[in-house]
Specification:
This protein has 323 residues and is α+β, with helices and mostly antiparallel strands. The strands form 4 sheets. A 4-stranded mixed sheet has the order 5-12-11-6. A 4-stranded antiparallel sheet has the order 8-7-9-10. The chain has a 3-stranded antiparallel sheet with strand order 4-3-13. It starts with a helix and ends with a helix.
Amino acid sequence: AEAAAADERFAPTSPGMSLMTSLSAPAAARLEARLRMEGRGIGILRASRRVLCRPYHKFWHLGARDDQRDREVSELLTAPPQPPVPDVAAGTLLLVEKVDGVMVQAFALDGRLFLATRSGRTRVAIQAEALLAHADGGRTAALCAHAVGAGYTPLLEFCSPALQPHRFDEPTLTLTALRHRGAGLYLPYATLRLLALKYRVRLASCLGGWKPPKEIRLLAEKDPRDAIERLATALRQQLERHAPRKGFEGIVIKMPSGLTLKLKATTFIQGKQQRVAALEENYELPDAVQRAVRASERARGPGSHRCCFGAASLAGGVCAQLG
């Protein structure tokens, strides 16, 4: 839609699809950036091209992008701080725990609930699915089913001692967000928290409020690059004081404008970080859960390849999959 507003030279193809044949360079650049931001892991039903699940959009580390550094500094210094937890209010800057696990997203097909990573129906996704079916008396599964029925994609973090033996005592699923499949909007944290309380499920923690040091305000006018580094240091120091547990990964910074950033904790950066791709290949679960996984895999049936997921590394990942 953004590209069409700038350049309307589209050639229609099959129903529900459009192919841009001769976009201007600025419009093409905007489209490519939009696809890179939104095409990571989006799930599409091949037959109808219906969106099955919509994961997080791509967001960057604080200070990682030169083209938005000034905006990051400005919003961190001016955004209204959140009131004390749990009285989280809309229109304030939120610091939400970044859970150190594998992101999985829930979707429904033929009346059954499935999980997928950004790469699709991977081994880790199926193992998380087995946990979803048997954990916490089915409360997380019930919340996911309710959210999917209302048009949202439940986004969860799957953690397990099988993934990282020295960090977790037992496998868990933590709710981190609900994102609308059509509009792409995220359910406000305050509403998310009420749902988590209602269903009695694990929710990513909202940490203490943020008040930037006065000296950084003065520095920001002279040197935005140095200011962003000072802001990152101040935020990490606050995380060390208010983190819900030791060894946490970091935070997701949610601005009132919708700008979302992430920041790793100092202790996490200093520790040994394992790659998710390697974990998926070497992941093992206890025998009882493995049996549930095998049963889940058998139940997938001939329709397991009816979905496709946008490629994270391709600008046109979604369109390429749909085509």
